[in-house]
Design goal:
two-stranded antiparallel ribbon; mainly alpha; Fumarate Reductase Cytochrome B subunit; about 5% strand; binds protoporphyrin IX containing FE
Length: about 180
């Protein structure tokens, strides 16, 4: 029977839904960032993909906080690996979590100190400032670079799962989250 909670040999249904649901949403988020970077202004596809970037980014931040809380709740029952690769996996997952929080948080803090204000799903969260606050602008300037670093870490994570675990070691690690 499918368990909701994690166990040492398999992630439970809730963790798997978080993992694959958020993976699909991250694909959309990186598609919007790539269009913003690669396509010229006044381009219809760029505008369409960019239209959801901020709302989806905040949604991803809320989801990662819930997912992290669920992960901590299940910490003693999660699948783990020993040895050097076990440490590498833990460090990789911790890095993913840190960037999944820091990347959107920096831009939200930047918007809180900006002159345009900030809304989420049409509801105003921060009013517009009369003058931009310099330090919030400085830290939000790191958003794009750290966003691309997150994309690179995600690619490394997918490579490790598919190439190392599935094709080289054939150790069934992919199965425990599939
Ligand atoms: C996990 C969530 C997020 C990811 C992965 C992400 C990723 C990125 C990336 C990679 C870029 C660079 C695009 C380029 O090079 O042109 C970017 C730009 C941008 N993002 Fe996000 N973003 C996220 C959340 C947010 C949120 C929550 C907001 C708004 C509050 C936001 C607003 C912006 C803006 C205004 C830009 C263009 C200016 C800049 O590069 O700083 N993003 N984002
Ligand atoms: C095709 C895409 C992906 C594949 C094949 C994949 C594969 C896997 C596998 C096999 C595990 C289990 C690792 C273990 O038990 O040691 C895992 C866990 C994990 N993955 Fe992915 N992954 C993908 C996309 C993503 C994305 C886009 C993110 C985040 C942006 C992500 C973040 C994580 C995290 C944080 C864990 C640790 C478990 C948790 O806390 O949920 N993955 N992934």
């Amino acid at each position: 029977m499918t368990s909701l909670t994690d166990s040492p040999d398999r992630y439970g249904l809730v963790s798997r839904l978080f993992h694959w649901g958020m993976a699909a949403l991250f694909a959309l988020q990186f598609a919007s960032a790539a269009a913003h970077w690669a396509l010229p202004r006044e381009n219809t596809l760029r505008d369409a993909l960019w239209s959801y970037h901020a709302d989806l980014g905040v949604t991803l931040l809320l989801l990662v906080l819930l997912r992290g809380a669920w992960g901590l709740w299940n910490l003693r029952n999660r699948p783990t690996e020993t040895g050097l690769m076990g440490y590498a996996a833990k460090a990789g997952h911790a890095g993913l979590y840190a960037l999944m929080v820091i990347v959107p948080a920096l831009k939200i803090i930047g918007s809180a100190g900006g002159t345009r204000g900030f809304s989420y799903l049409g509801l105003q969260v921060f009013p517009a400032q009369d003058a931009a606050i310099a330090w919030t602008k400085t830290i939000s300037d790191w958003h794009g670079t750290l966003g691309w670093i997150l994309a690179a870490v995600v690619l490394g994570h997918i490579g490790a799962a598919i190439v190392w675990h599935q094709l080289v070691k054939r150790d069934g690690v992919l199965k425990r989250i599939a």
